[in-house]
Amino acid sequence: MAYSTKVLDHYNNPRNVGSFSQADPNVGTGLVGAPECGDVLKLQILVNPDTGVIEDAKFKTFGCGSAIASSSLATEWLRGKTIDEAMAIKNTQIVEELSLPPVKVHCSVLAEDAIKAAIKNYQDKQPSPKEEAALA
Amino acid sequence: MAVKLPIYMDNNATTRVDPRVIEAMLPYFTEKFGNAASRNHAFGWEAEEAVENAREQIAQLIGATPKEIIFTSGATESNNLALKGVAAMYKKKGNHIITASTEHKAVIDPCKRLERDGYQVTFLPVDRHGRVSADQIAEAITDKTILVSIMAANNEIGTLQPIRDIGRLCKQRGVLFHTDAVQAVGKVPVDVEEMGIDLLSMTAHKIYGPKGQGALYVRRKDPRVRLDPIIDGGGHERGMRSGTLAVPLIVGFGKACELCANEMTAETARLLKLRERLRKGIMDQVGETYINGHPTERLPGNINLSFAYVEGEALMMGVKEVAVSSGSACTSASLEPSYVLRALGVGDELAHSSIRFGLGRFNTEEEVDFVIDHVVQAVNHLRSMSPLYEMAREGVDLKTVQWATH
């Protein structure tokens, strides 16, 4: 099975590899997959608390080339998006962009899961309205 | 010196045909095209003579007599014929077969079919190096056991089985012994008499011969093994396998066996040196790399390594100029990692991280050095983007993490 040029490009020149400190309240971290399944994606977003815009995104991935490409692409797409826009990213868009074959669709599913997990983690870290009121 | 790319280092999958083999085959496609079963003209006699010469060359490599060699289309057919042929012929004697969990699918799947047909099959577990012991087999044998089938060498991890001990035990217990010796024949010494083998599967394309030609050794005395054929027809091959013989392929198979017999000592020494150069070259530069299979009791040209924190298919992409294979699930449609590595108790995460290097007759030292450099680079590249590597470096015990398994 040959890889698409886009998968190869992301594999050879992955965008936004790296990590943010999980202690930063503006960072949301999504860790999905499992080593025994052969894929683990760690995707992180750095959100501007005033605008709610994702200013930066980083990833680290253990997995095949398609999993690496899916997460690399996801970080590119996340940068500059609002949380709501990011929530709307669908795995099928990743499949289409990278021309993933059917056996690699699960890589895109994992990338979507990682985006959602990172957003949830960010939201969980934010004080709830009640807490905010208490602080005020 | 620049190496020619791509490099083929997957010789457990198949091998390039040796030019000397091609040369031997060529006349049998053109002027010597006769049917070996044509008994009444020169074309037939010429073909028959070539087939009988090849039978002799093949028999010699495994210490058999020519009449004990039955030609087949390949080792999958040989395994099917051995297992199903014995099961059908000896079903009055018993219905129990013993094999191992790390056998090739061409043994496992016929055994599973026999199970569906009412036979009992014991799939023995293996130790962490992939070996079964004669003691395990002794314990598994019952008064219903008709056949033991244990491979001589494993195709993925290269582990050699204690065939001689198993053969001796089967003799003592009066049970037939079949071995799938596809990977072992021509690479390590195999002798059906010394090893007490009653049936042996082999194929040409793993030993620098053509694809599409195999053989099954079927013992003719002490005991005389009988088989129910699975292909009926003109009664070729003593009635055990009908069908016109593929004379050019058989000639190539014979020549390939002759070359292996003549060159095995020198070739083994050369391959061992290359394999150790490769293994050391990689392991000295990349930490947390593990050998799958037996450290010493293994095929000279095979080394199977797991690179922690790196997925096998991604690694193969990183060394795309080199043809190797991986036990990673991603290389198959099933999403399951190699059942052989799982049977060793290698964790699934390390099974996903495995690469099989299969060195062969045509690999050079320059190629090995190229592969070392590129594998090391690729592992470092992938570890730099591996969350597992990062977590391990931070002191996280990956076994204690609650993973969201999917």
Structure, described:
The complex is a heterodimer of chains A (136) and B (406). Chain A has 136 residues and is of the alpha+beta class. Chain A has helices spanning 5-12, 65-78, 83-87, 91-98, 105-125, 129-135; strands spanning 27-34, 39-47, 54-62. Chain A contains six helices and three strands; from the N terminus they run H-E-E-E-H-H-H-H-H. In chain A, strand 2 and strand 3 form a beta hairpin. In chain A, helix 1 (5-12) crosses helix 2 (65-78) and helix 2 packs across helix 5. The model of chain A has no long low-confidence stretch (mean pLDDT 93). With 406 residues, chain B is an alpha/beta fold. Helix content of chain B is 38%, strand content 14%. In chain B, helix 6 (163-173) links the parallel strand 5 (145-149) and strand 6 (176-180). The A-B interface holds A 3, 8, 11, 14, 17, 19, 31-42, 59-68, 103, 106, 109-110, 113, 117 and B 309-311, 313-314, 317-318, 328-330, 333, 335, 337, 347-349, 352, 384-390, 398, 403-406.
Secondary structure tally, helices of chain A: 6
Number of strands of chain A: 3
The biggest sheet of chain A amounts to: 3 strands, antiparallel
Question: How much beta of chain A, percentage-wise?
Answer: 15-25%
Specify the structural class of chain A.
Answer: alpha+beta
Through-space gap between termini of chain B: 47 Å
The chain pair with the largest interface is:
A-B, 34 and 29 residues
Q: Radius of gyration of chain B, rounded?
A: 22 Å
Distance between the termini of chain A: 59 Å
Query: Which strand order does the major sheet of chain B show?
Result: 2-8-7-6-5-3-4
Low-confidence stretches of chain B: none
Helix-and-strand structural type of chain B:
alpha/beta
